[in-house]
């Protein structure tokens, strides 16, 4: 099973500005210290040793993930602005020929998780079938409202692909191809749902947009049970721990809470996502470093050693993880 990240920003698109790009270049040149590079390989070696935030960016698009099974089953999770680029790639295959069946799972229907759908070009290709799955009872209504003539020049009913809606029930297991999928409601205004994907003994969980209002063991138990033994948990880490306690009921979490949950649920990899648009790449790198330190301290407090380490990854556009 493979995870591909097409959009990892929270709340609204947040493209890198020209000023921010210049700052990255200026800092990289400063670190070069007057070095000369005789070959392209020398340049690459230098770049490989620079801090992550100077050579990468989280990207400006809102939430969109792609999951591909070993047998080629493809599922899209959320239709944030990142789904536009994903749609362009899909057009290079069967979707461009009007022969694709595309499955989409929506965690919830806030704007930053559906705003890319009007620009998802496979939905305008006759012959394609787009099946949108979700627990909310107003899936079609929300997408149609976004594309009302007052908001967008093309209506949902004018899309030339066949768009279907599949209404799920929380906790009721279902399958798409060789992927077995289940759902869990998260604390978020209007409700959001985590998805658990299992294939061949490997498990991936997408749990964006969730707040953990009570951190005692009893309150966390339903979530720990859902996340238990997953190879990877994609986790809402929009705020620092301090900010979480100032933004109660906003429906988001923090990296430190993610670490605690992963350690308690025996998760192998924590993928931090839904980044705050106020954060720069440099700040996110600093948050990742502090989260690593917190994990190391937390591991020392465990009553017994974990069978596997906890790897922590900051999600960014273009990131691919194989389980």
Can you walk through the features of this model?
It contains nine helices and 14 strands. With 323 residues, it is an alpha/beta fold. The protein has one domain: Metallo-beta-lactamase, Chain A. β10, α6 and β11 form a beta-alpha-beta unit. The radius of gyration is 20 Å and the shape is globular.
Mind sketching the topology for me?
Blueprint: E1 2-7, H1 18-32, H2 40-48, H3 52-55, E2 64-68, E3 74-77, H4 83-90, E4 101-105, E5 129-134, H5 139-146, E6 162-167, E7 174-176, E8 179-186, E9 192-199, E10 202-207, H6 217-227, E11 232-236, H7 241-246, H8 255-265, E12 269-273, H9 281-301, E13 311-314, E14 320-322
Helix pairs in contact: 6-8, 8-9
Fraction in beta strands? 15-25%
What is the SS-derived class?
alpha/beta
The CATH class label is Alpha Beta
Choose one word for the global shape.
globular
Which fold name is given in CATH as the topology? Metallo-beta-lactamase, Chain A
Percentage of residues assigned to helices = 25-40%
For the record, the count of structural domains works out to 1
C-alpha end-to-end distance: 6 Å
